[in-house]
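In this supplementary section we document a worked example of the pipeline. Step one takes a protein sequence of length 71 as its only input; no multiple sequence alignment statistics are reported here. Step two produces a three-dimensional model, which step three serialises into structure tokens for compact storage. The input and output of this example are shown verbatim.
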Amino acid sequence: HPINFNDDGTITQADPVGGRYTFRPEWFTSTKYKGREIPCISQEAQLLFHSGYDLTDKDHFDIHNLRQNKG
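The serialised model returned by step three reads:
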């Protein structure tokens, strides 16, 4: 997925219908896994990205796991 890094700290990505998704700087975080720092997208952003369309069984599974692992 091609992305653009913007001067204001946001990242934009083209969406399938000709618009753009905008990723806010605070959505980027990291976690530790087996002693390594892993960059990731925040729980808040992942939950937001699972909205605005008909959810699949996989989406419901993802949302359930995101809510169970709060914090």
